[in-house]
Amino acid sequence: MDLSTTYLGFKLNNPIIIGSCGYTYSVKDIKTLVDNGASAVVLKSIFEEEIVWEMETNIAKMQRPMTMYPEIYDYYDLETIEDSVTKYLNLISDVKKEVSAPVIASVNCVSAQEWVPFAKRIENAGADAIELNIFVMPSDINKTSQENEHAYFEIINSVLSEVKIPVSVKLSYYFSNLAYMIKKISETGVKGIVLFNRFFEPDFDLDSLTVTPTNVLSSPSDLGKSLRWIAIMSERVNCDLCASTGIHDGKAVIKQILAGAKAVQIVSVLYKKGPKVIGEILDEIKLWMEEKEFASLDDFRGRLSQSRSLNPAVYERAQFMHYFSEKF
Ligand SMILES: Cc1cc2nc3c(=O)[nH]c(=O)nc-3n(C[C@H](O)[C@H](O)[C@H](O)COP(=O)(O)O)c2cc1C
Q1: Which whole number is the average pLDDT over 299-321?
Q2: Whose CA is nearest to atom 5 of ligand 1?
Q3: pLDDT tens profile 184-193
Q4: Ligand 1 neighbour 186 (Cβ under 6 A)
Q5: How far is the CA of 295 from the centre of ligand 1 (A)?
Q6: What does the domain layout of the chain look like in residue ranges?
Q7: What is the tens place of the pLDDT at every residue in 260-308?
Q8: b/e per residue 133-152 (b: at least 16 CB within 10 A)
Q9: What's residue 64's pLDDT?
Q10: How many CA atoms lie within 13 A of 171 on its CB side?
Q11: Lower Cβ count inside 10 Å, N or C end of the chain?
Q12: Averaged over 167-188, what is the pLDDT?
């Protein structure tokens, strides 16, 4: 049974990549994940703000307007932020000494400003690839969608001109024309697109009347959005597609391969079940392939993509026409 696949130009033993999260922030945890079967890891993201902070002089830091990156002042202990860049580069080189699986560094960014040359330091530290987690929240009522979308291309193009290692982009679905954006981004020279990132969602606590985070971890029912868009876009893009969000078992991986994904990323299921779940997912895939008599992932990859579908409209159906008229 051949579970191997290729992603960003790397030959992977199987399609299970560990997505960026707290589990991919120490050599020990990453070793455990790889020992349990992960074929590649995306390191916990370093934030653009952390990089810029390290680059600035003390005077520039004092002069930085408080409004520029408001979250940074809430989120970080300014005593330790200074060390985070060195820590990140050390993490990359230390992990590379310990594991043979590809190590993908991750940068959380919103602009193509001062931080971009840092991509070269990531490459020099030994990362096999860089995943850009770009998210410009489309909440500014004075900005056009073109202005927001332009930022993505600026970031991607400037990082691509900085490094030789493969670059991938993890996206959200908040675009006015998602298919167009995915297609255009795939033509920039990135080697992969990850669909989709998952975001902090606010909820209200009705006792304290405060805003609280909710649904931090995904559930299997969150699979649909990424499944639909992998199916719509696979075979229409110029790079690999990697599925992310709501992948909790072997069946979900199989579905994403049927949709056309080259690989998948898992995170929440690790938090729920621990690293041994990777082996369980791989066993489930093997069992299904045996039953269906598929010898490799290529035997069924993309079989249910929109472009190969006999009923392509089903992927674009948005309303519950049938269900509106029935009780179920
Ligand atoms: C606790 C936690 C921490 C995360 N940290 C990061 C991060 O640093 N960078 C990033 O790009 N994504 C981060 N993510 C998002 C995941 O990489 C992933 O895209 C998302 O959780 C969807 O996958 P899942 O449904 O398997 O959890 C984080 C997710 C969780 C739950």
Answers
A1: 86
A2: 21
A3: 999 999 999 9
A4: no
A5: 31
A6: 5-324
A7: 999 999 999 999 999 999 999 999 999 999 999 999 999 999 999 999 9
A8: bbbbebeeeeeeeeebbebb
A9: 57
A10: 31
A11: C
A12: 97
Share of the chain above pLDDT 90, in %: 78
Residue of 77 and 93 predicted with greater confidence:
93
Question: Is any atom of ligand 1 closer than 6 Å to the C-beta of 244?
Answer: yes
What SS3 state is found at 323? Answer: helix
Q: What is the CATH number of domain 5-324?
A: 3.20.20.70
Token code pair at residue 105: 């560094």
Confidence (pTM): 0.92
| Residue 267 in contact with ligand 1 by CB distance below 6 A | yes
* Residue 120: both structure tokens together: 């070269």
Q: Is the CB of 266 under 6 A from ligand 1?
A: yes
- Burial class of residue 216 (count of CB atoms within 10 Å of its CB; 0-12, 13-18, 19+): exposed
Q: String of b and e for 175-202 (b: at least 16 CB within 10 Å)? A: beebeebbebbbebebbbbbbbbbeeee
